[in-house]
Amino acid sequence: MNLLIDLGNTRLKWALWGQGRRSMGGVFAHADTSLEAALSNNWTALPKPAAIFVASVVKSTLEEELTRLLESHFEQTAEFVRSPAQALGIRNAYAEPQRLGVDRFLGMAALHAAAPRAQILVSCGTALTLDALTAEGQHLGGLIAPSPTLMRRSLGTATARVGEHAGELVEIADNTADAAWSGCLLSTVALIERFRHQVAQRIGTPVAVVGDGGGLDEWLALLPDVERGRDLVLRGLALWSERGHR
Hints:
Largest sheet: 5 strands, mixed
Number of domains: 2
CATH topology of the largest domain: Nucleotidyltransferase, domain 5
Helix content: 25-40%
Number of strands: 12
Strand order of the largest sheet: 3-2-1-4-5
């Protein structure tokens, strides 16, 4: 069994994968605790994997810490996957392929493997990313924006009187908390809708939209035709562990 790790800015998701299926898995936050404490609390009984594959979007110091912990715990060196120019049926649009977040590349690979069609992947974590993909696996490019939660947090810290009080979604707000939260959510929805329109115009065909990530539930109900993805980065990482650059 291979150990697959999706290391995001606030959470770590993992799975044991072998013979085309997942046998164990989980998720835990690491932003508010040490990575060492988080791993020791979650992986004490984990069997030694055949290989370890990591998709990471964090700074290099945290990657180095994870490498050290994995070598200490499993006596193995992990492979940190980087976005290539082409692999797993996906052709990267970036002139510098490794500049594309590997989570975005692997998420597209998982989508394309499941359903090769014109589609947009919307990933909502700390950041919101949108990536357009043709039915032939050509990545057209994408957008990056703050997630609704990050937008709301930024308003609370960068303005004097908005504060960080929780708000409710309303179309026209009559108080500051609702106005701030609704503005953040509806900005996200407008961005997704405009991006879908632009992509559909460019390729001349309707485009499916699939959402994934820990912040998905904040806005998914506002776009009822958006499909829900499940662990797309881990699924793409599983493909990588089986096929590599092919």
